[in-house]
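Q: Convert this sequence to structure tokens.
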Amino acid sequence: MTWAVAWRPVAEGDLTDCAAYIAEDNVDAALRFVDAVEETVAALAESPMLGTATHFAHPELAGLRRRVVNRFKRYLISTEVNQQHRRLSSCAFSPGSATFLARWSSGSSLGHALGC
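A:
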């Protein structure tokens, strides 16, 4: 059974920012990137545990899973798996991004930090 996918606002912004960055050099590669993200998320919706469990010191980041975007190894999809509601919440980001942890941990709760 396919799980529902919720794109957090920060994830949508990350996807747009990453695609725009890639498009600065190669528009076709940016379009392939967006397709690859969609394919990766679809695979995760079919099998949410495909992502690798990730351990962060910050408690609001506990339980996140990561998966490399198909064909774009510099980019990861980070997901929060809600087994009770069979929902996968996604956030795309570049592993070199200094703003990732700040954005995920800046709120009073994970949902607030992700813009829910």
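The first strand starts at residue 4 and ends at 7.
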